[in-house]
Structure formats: C-alpha cells, structure tokens
User: Fold this.
Amino acid sequence: MQSLSCGNEREGEMLQQIRRLKFKAVLYGFLVDTIGTMAIAMALFSAMAARGLSEAEIAARMHGLSGLLLMFIFGLGFTLVGGYVAGRTAGREEILHGTTVAGIGLVLGLFLWDPSFPRWYEVVSFAWMIPAGAAGGQLAQQSNAKRKLAGRS
Assistant:
C-alpha cells in the first residue's frame, strides 16, 4: 500500500510542476529552438546549393562528420537559447522551463526521426538535448537573479 501512496505523491509533484509552467514562455522558447535550428539547416543547404552542389552531394556532406557536427552544435545551441528564452520570459522556475522546451523538442525529434542519419548521431543528439535546455534555463536564472538584485524586473 505504501508504494501506491508514493506513486500518488510523485504524480502530485509532477502536476504541481506542470501548473507552475508558463505556456507562453515555453512556446517562445520552443519557437526559438525549432525555427533557429531549421533556419541554420536551410542556410547550410542553400549555401551548398549556391555553390552548385547537387542534392546528392549536399546530402552526403550533411551526413558526413563535419555536417553532423555542425548540425549537432547549432541544434544544441538553439536548444540552449530556447531554454534561456523560456526561462527568462517565465521569470521563475527557469530550469524547469528550459528543460520543458528541450523535452518538447526531444519528443518532436523522435516523431520526425530520420533513419538516414547515423544511429550514434541520433543517440548523442537526443542525450544532450535536456542538459542543453537546462543550461539555458540556468543562464536565465542567473540573468533574472542579477536583474532582481539591480532592482529591475
């Protein structure tokens, strides 16, 4: 019987955390993450197309180590920025907002999974999404704390 009450307590804690989320802040962070990541991917694709590369050559470069590293760095960078935007906009529970942005991006990424990418890339990218969002939330928390100390809200 004790395990049931423990489970109910956890569910109650999760519901409390969900209630503390500011939807608009999470939406803004998610949009920054998603649009930023897509914009970089399109910019890279366009730059290579402008140099006269065929779609097959572009795909080969994007699936090569340098292309994968670029997308990994930019993708996680925008997840960090999205987590920061969410945390900064919320003004409270910054890390929770940042990790929520990353969690939504992770779920979306699982639905849009592209089997043409190497498995290691997918695993490493997904594994680093939540820490990147949390880091963005942490930066927002520090920024918000500095603003409060300075007397600005």
Q: What stands out?
A: The longest helix spans residues 119-149.
